[in-house]
Design brief:
The complex is a heterodimer. Chain A is of the alpha+beta class. In chain A, the strands form eight sheets. Chain A has an eight-stranded mixed beta sheet with strand order 27-28-30-29-31-32-33-34, sandwiched between helices. In chain A, strands 1-2-3-4 form a four-stranded antiparallel beta sheet, with no helix packed on it. In chain A, strand 14 and strand 15 form a beta hairpin. Chain B is 27% helix and 36% strand. In chain B, strands 1, 4, 8, 9, 10 and 11 form a six-stranded mixed beta sheet that branches. Chain B has four helices and eleven strands. Chain B has one domain. By secondary structure, chain B is of the alpha/beta class. Classes of the chains: A alpha+beta, B alpha/beta. Chains A and B meet through helix 8 and helix 11 of A and strand 10, helix 2 and helix 4 of B.
């Protein structure tokens, strides 16, 4: 009897297992292969330039921090991170690293790893907890054994800033009130140190204001040097000690963000150090010594470009232009003396290859590919397109066509980005875009008004344009693709996350003639709810900015309701896909429930998906798998497409 | 003698205050509302460790409320209370230690209870992961509150309709209830 029962149970298990296997669609299996962690990530060079450190990810999800000795080619594992607790790490000197480690859901600690070598081989790693509730601010490369940290006392919202001596036995004794670098200073959320490791500049974005303070060297007082609305960009990036100047990214009385000198004595702007015609400067990276800029980056035709400020740029050009396109490279890390440089080559069809340059050997070598499995798929090629919106504004977008687009016209998925302000799409490698392209879709990313990188006027043109001119911009981009004859014009869907989710739903309502289905992930569905509920904690200062960009919800409620998908659900006749995450603290899950219930009332049985572990975006690989395979199933059903075929080489 | 009278009077007052709390919680939702009373739909989403107890400050001296036995996830309570404004005031993380509470009165999370209505103003989101990482939010999830009320107490939802009484006008419940 026991045997019969056991056999019965076994059969049940096998049937259950078989049905589980059967349930996985082609697109889900493809998503499992496609959406994987890179084999190697976060590579860094030790200050001497003789070792490369990186995370190695195995298929079990374990992360190993490893060291590659460039002289012996010997690779050794330093630390096995089974619980994915290591957030980041930094070299302090050639024998020491500091790791930021997550120890609770919302807490992190700092650890020091000391490497003990013998005959060029790593013999031992001494691990030591530096501090709980802290993170590394600056490795202070010019100072031996010193680092700058941010430390949170119990119950405090803003951190205390300290310079810590790693060679000292006791860390807590270094945390006294008098040793606090931001003692008697206003609360801030970013800090800038000079090349001697002194805290010199602090910045806070609060209550809708951007405030910057500078510490006068002789008096030691904190002096406010900038206090304007947060829309006015003013970001200090380097302290020029000898000239008593700052280098700042700013768009003061200008349309585009430039890198400019700022005189601290009289608080005036000096000469422009770097600008790009018709483009904002996106970011600036300093060298390790904190005495110069390594590079400034900007986006041109959807590709991120770097302008190098040291002789590194000419070095890269000289050594790369022979066989490789130097413009596709960017410097990830380098040794202090520039003798060893780690660079990443990446573009829209290449996930990335790390290269190592050793100037003394005049040697260029491939270190590793980030996602080698991508090479077996036929990936899509992207191109820049422009369109003219309803009010004459020019819109830049990026169209990725699947590899088989010449054989038959592909369906199109329009993907407006989130934001809507200060976010942008580009033509860099995107797993999500290439996943859709590898299943035969064309993908369009419009940079509608408000997108980052196109200047102040373009950003301000998005004010109070939810469901209006922003969507006109998106429609103009879609129309340009329709006019190009490259896609099947009867098979167009629109999908996005956050604002993109809102845009997908409202676009489908506005233009049912174009969009045959709409999909939203963590999307806003009720603007009134967002302004009153989700933005509640932002404070009075931010409310002014919100009113300017979104509208005054108390005075304009009727208008906002007329642009909220929840209140227009009856007009939505196309198939709808709604997905949300339980832990979303930006767009509350109520948006999902409201839209779902109104669609059901209107007789539109939306396809729904719930990601229980996620917040406002993606943290887990299985979320990509679930969402993107579900999207493929939804698009196929809505557009009456055949079963998926993965485009492989 | 005067001192003894004072003590007796104080004890009587304390007893009245306590019985007021208990009465509010003991009422069955199907009961007919007294004059000057309304239903208060309290909703608490607990993430991390559930609070041991949550206190609300009522419109009168003895109209404070407390809710306990909270579990992880959504918790709902329907209480018959005198009309007026009720503020979330304290969240207790450990009932053994009377001092272990979070003062949230200044957060201004309140519900205006209206006569002959079931009043709701939001879900209190309690995130208690550790003493260092505790956070509270107040989120309008009226579609969830409506679903709960309809499923648990259809009679109440028909007789005393759910009304959003937060700090701003939200027309969604009108839209939702309109078939």
């Amino acid at each position: 009897m026991k045997n019969i029962f056991a056999v019965f149970l076994l059969c049940l298990c096998l049937v259950a297992h078989a049905s589980e296997q059967k349930e996985l669609s082609v697109s889900h299996k493809h998503a499992q292969v496609f959406f994987q962690n890179p084999q190697y990530s976060s590579p860094k060079i030790d200050p001497s330039g003789r070792r490369v450190s990186f995370f190695e990810h195995d298929k079990n999800g374990d992360k190993k921090l490893s060291l590659l000795d460039l002289d012996s080619n010997n690779m050794q594992i330093v630390y096995v991170d089974k619980l994915d607790r290591v957030i980041s790490y930094d070299w302090i000197d050639q024998d020491t690293m500091v790791l930021t480690v997550r120890y609770q859901e919302h807490s992190q600690s700092l650890y020091k790893f000391d490497f003990i070598y013998s005959d060029g081989l790593l013999k031992e790693v001494e691990q030591k907890l530096i501090l709980d509730n802290a993170y590394l601010l600056d490795p202070l490369s010019n100072l031996q054994d010193k680092i700058a940290i941010a430390y949170f006392s119990v119950g405090e919202r803003y951190p205390n800033i300290y310079k810590i001596d790693l060679s000292a036995k006791n860390t807590s004794s270094q945390l006294g009130g008098k040793k606090k670098l931001n003692r008697l200073a206003p609360d801030a959320d970013s800090w800038l140190f000079n090349s001697n490791g002194q805290l010199q500049v602090m910045q806070a974005i609060k209550e809708g204001k951007n405030i910057v303070w500078y510490k006068e060297p002789k008096k030691g007082r904190w002096v406010e040097i900038w206090n304007k609305t947060k829309e006015a960009r003013f970001k200090p990036v380097l302290f020029l000690e000898d000239k008593n100047q700052l280098l700042v990214l700013n768009n003061h009385e200008k349309n585009f963000i430039e890198l400019t000198k700022f005189n601290l004595a009289d608080k005036t702007f000096g000469e422009t150090v770097f600008k790009v015609e018709g483009r904002d400067i996106d970011n600036v990276v300093r060298n390790q010594q904190r005495d110069n800029i390594l590079y400034a980056s900007y986006t041109e035709n959807g590709i991120v470009r770097q302008k190098y400020f040291t002789d590194l740029g000419s070095f890269i050009k000289k050594h790369l232009n022979k066989n490789l396109n130097a413009r596709d490279f960017w410097v990830v890390d380098k040794s202090i003396d520039n003798s060893t440089v780690l660079a990443l080559k990446t573009n829209s069809r290449q996930a990335g290859v790390y290269y190592l340059f050793e100037s003394d050997r005049v040697q260029l070598s491939i270190l590793t590919e980030t996602k080698p499995w991508m090479s077996k798929f036929q990936l899509g090629k992207s191109e820049r397109i422009t369109s003219t919106s309803s009010d004459g504004l020019e819109i830049e977008s990026f169209l990725t066509l699947p590899a088989n687009s010449k054989e038959s016209k592909p369906p199109l998925i329009v993907v407006p980005h989130g934001g809507p302000v200060n976010v942008r799409s580009n033509r860099e490698f995107s797993m999500q875009t290439q996943y859709l392209a590898s299943l035969g879709y064309a993908v369009l990313h419009p940079n509608y008004r408000g997108s980052a990188g196109y200047g102040k006027e373009f950003k301000e043109a998005a004010k109070q344009q939810w469901g209006k001119l922003i969507e006109d911009d998106i429609d103009s981009a879609t129309q340009a693709v329709i006019d190009s004859g490259l896609i099947d014009t009867n098979k167009i869907c629109i999908y996005g996350a956050s604002y993109g989710g809102y845009s997908a739903l409202i676009s489908a309502i506005r233009r049912p003639d174009i969009y045959k289905c709409a999909a939203s992930y963590v999307g806003v569905t009720d603007i009134n709810l967002m302004l009153e509920n989700d933005f509640r904690s932002l404070g009075e200062g931010n409310l002014q900015w919100i009113k300017k960009y979104y509208g005054d919800h108390r005075k304009q409620q009727a208008d906002l309701l007329q642009r909220s998908p929840v209140y227009l659900a009856k007009q939505l006749k196309q198939p709808v896909f709604l997905a949300h995450s339980l832990r979303d603290d930006v767009v509350d899950i109520e948006h999902y429930y409201r839209m779902k219930s109104e669609l059901v009332k209107a007789g539109n049985s939306a396809t729904t998906l719930f990601l229980e572990k996620e917040g406002h975006g993606f943290k887990y690989l299985e979320s990509y798998e679930q969402l993107y395979s579900s999207l493929d199933t939804f698009f196929r059903k809505s557009l009456n497409l055949p079963e998926p075929v993965v485009l492989q080489k | 003698m005067i001192s003894l009278c004072k003590t007796i009077f104080s004890l009587a007052l304390l007893g009245a205050a306590l019985s007021s709390d208990l009465e509010a919680q003991r009422l069955t939702p199907e009961a007919t509302l007294k004059n000057g009373h309304g239903y208060l739909l309290l909703a608490v989403e607990s993430l991390g460790t559930p609070p041991k107890k949550i206190l609300l400050k009522g419109p009168k001296v003895f109209s404070s409320l407390s809710i306990d036995k909270l579990k992880i996830g959504d918790n709902y309570r329907i209480l018959e209370v005198p009309i007026g404004r009720y503020y979330y005031s304290q969240v207790y993380s450990d009932e053994e230690k009377s001092s272990a509470y979070w003062e949230i009165l200044s957060f201004d999370y309140y519900i205006d209870v209206q006569e002959n209505q079931t009043s709701y103003a939001g879900h209190l989101i309690s995130e208690m992961y550790s003493d260092q990482h505790t956070d509270f939010n107040f989120r309008n999830r009226s579609s969830r509150a409506y679903k709960y009320l309809k499923e648990c107490c259809e009679l109440i939802s028909k007789k005393y309709p759910l009304t959003f009484t937060g700090s701003y006008p939200d027309p969604f419940l009108d839209l939702l209830i309109r078939e």
